[in-house]
Amino acid sequence: MDDVIVVGAGPAGNNTALGLATRGHAVTVIDWRHDIGDKLCTGLVGRECIRRFPIDPEHVLREPRSAMVMAPGAPGVLFEADTSPACIVDRVAYVASFAHRAQDAGAVYLLGQRVQQIIPQRHGVTVVTDRGTRQARALVLASGFGSPLARQAGFGSVTDYVTGVQAVVSTNGIEDVEVHLGHDVAPGFFSWLVPTRRDTALVGLLSRRKAQDHLARFIQCLQQKGKIGAAISEAKSWGIPLRPLKRTYRDRILVVGDAAGQVKPTTGGGIYYSLLVSEIAAQAMSEALSGDDLSARGLRNYQTRWQDLLGHELDVGYSARRLYEFLSDKQIGSLVQQAGANGINGELTGASDVSFDWHSRMIGNVLGHPVLGAALKMINPVLARLARPTEPETSGPVTGPVNGQVNGSNASGSPTKTQPH
Ligand SMILES: Cc1cc2nc3c(=O)[nH]c(=O)nc-3n(C[C@H](O)[C@H](O)[C@H](O)COP(=O)(O)OP(=O)(O)OC[C@H]3O[C@@H](n4cnc5c(N)ncnc54)[C@H](O)[C@@H]3O)c2cc1C
Q1: Ligand 1, residues 30, 42, 279: which to mutate, most atoms within 8 A of Cβ?
Q2: Is the CB of 143 under 6 A from ligand 1?
């Protein structure tokens, strides 16, 4: 019998497997895909993620320093930083690198097998796949968005989500990232043009409805402006959770990553949070295995620790997201125009406490801004109050040494956060 079966070889599952295997536990990872990490994604990750979870430089495709934000009825506003705050990476290669390290540490990978059922039992967990049955003392569910397994195992479902849709297009060598706002383009969310390799780019958007139709129109509009050429791949779509599950542990089972809804609700970015939370999961599961207490009580630490790290960010980010969804095109255009005209774009990108991965500080800055904040509070006072971080000093970049699996951890092994300057 394995110590742990991990379902899903995305960032969450691979990094959990790595953490468990390096601690000496017998781990098997099962994924229905043959190509590890090959899930729809743009591959944009912050500098902090790369510092903490290093990447082979060959897998970094771009290091953009700026993004042009286009809003209805307003001139484009450039948000430019001195150094690139994020990288566009080869997502498949990056995610697979965690699997290779987990395999080197002893984890076994069963690819091309779909887990159909999880049966928790008194002394273990039975996993039924389309190829047979396996047993383990415990299980980590890292099966991403939309898998029925979390619900089947009694965790319920994420209560809010959005559809992401994306296509690869040809370009004649664009350099800049573009973000487009407005209800015609991506109602309540945003669309993007992200250059990747030479002469190719990703065009995508998030939308609660008709995402494919919106993308077709967005591609046509970029083509008419001569920014992109033909679509190289057909548009694919996938869900992104916007709220976490209420409970992410039970006897012998933890839920991690998109399956648990641990995603930035502002942008839908989930790679970094999945990696951070999977460190916590590996630590908590390892302690429970070593103490031979795989009861819900023995695994509760996992939820306490990840909520300490991300709970505030997810709550503030979700309220800000809902606030944004209420804005009309005129209001969005006016806010972006004011940001450009008053140099607020520079203030925001230059602020030392603004981070690509921790948005509550940025949201606090926007809501506390005399011009933007006052406008948002008038538009929706209730959501503006909910989105205003109450304890900004508790959120911030994760710190710590950068080479190794459980980096930047405090005494309990949980990732730690810096205090504001
Ligand atoms: C269009 C789009 C763009 C995105 N862009 C970004 C971005 O730029 N930056 C960012 O940080 N995040 C981005 N994300 C989100 C990011 O991709 C996810 O948050 C991240 O992949 C979550 O990792 P995970 O390991 O939890 O899940 P996943 O990466 O989804 O991995 C889950 C794995 O489980 C496997 N699986 C599922 N069910 C079963 C089963 N029954 N049996 C066996 N295996 C199973 C799947 O095959 C998959 O490999 C984007 C998402 C979308 C949709």
Answers
A1: 42
A2: yes
Report the percent of the chain where pLDDT is more than 70.
90
pLDDT band at 400 (very low <50, low <70, confident <90, very high): very low
Ligand 1 within 6 A of CB of 6 = no
Give the CATH number for residue 151: 3.50.50.60
Give the Å distance between the CA of 365 and the centre of ligand 1.
30
224 and 364 share a domain?
no
CA distance 85 to 64: 8
Q: What spacing in Å lies between the alpha carbon of 148 and ligand 1's midpoint? A: 14
| Same-domain status, 27 and 141 | yes
| Residue 102 reports pLDDT greater than 50 | yes
Residues 296 and 329 in one domain: no
Question: Can you give the pLDDT at residue 328?
Answer: 92
Core vs surface per residue 10-26: b (16+ CB within 10 A) or e: bbbbbbbbbbbbbbebb
Looking at the predicted structure, is the pLDDT value of residue 342 above 60? yes
Assigned token pair, 157 = 């479902």
The CATH number of residue 206's host domain is 3.30.9.10
Both 138 and 220 in one domain: the answer is: no
Q: 267 CA to middle of ligand 1, Å? A: 14
Tell which of 240, 275, 295 closes a domain: 240
For residue 134 and ligand 1, the question of a CB distance below 6 A is answered with no
Section 248-277 average pLDDT: 97
pLDDT of residue 240 exceeding 70:
yes
Report the alpha-carbon distance of residue 356 to residue 273 in Å, rounded: 12
Q: Determine how β-strand 86-89 pairs with β-strand 2-7.
A: unpaired
199 and 219 share one domain: yes
Cα-to-centroid distance, 203 and ligand 1 (Å): 18
In the predicted model, is pLDDT for residue 391 greater than 70? no
> Would you place residue 407 in the very low, low, confident or very high pLDDT band (cuts 50, 70, 90)?
very low
Distance 242 CA to ligand 1 centre (A): 14
Burial of residue 343 (CB within 10 Å: 0-12, 13-18, 19+) is exposed
Does any domain span residue 417?
A: no
- Asked if residue 207 is part of any domain, the answer here is yes
Q: What is the pLDDT of residues 7-62, one digit of tens each?
A: 999 999 999 999 999 999 999 999 999 999 999 999 999 999 999 999 999 999 99
Range of the domain at 188: 161-240
- Are 19 and 148 part of one and the same domain? yes
Is 409 contained in some domain?
A: no
What is the residue with the minimal CA distance to atom 1 of ligand 1? 164
359: buried, middle or exposed (CB in 10 Å: 19+, 13-18, 0-12)? buried
Asked whether residue 226 falls in the same domain as residue 329, the answer is no
Mean pLDDT along residues 112-126: 96
Q: How far apart are CA 257 and CA 388, in angstroms?
A: 25
Closest atom of ligand 1 to CA, residue 44:
8
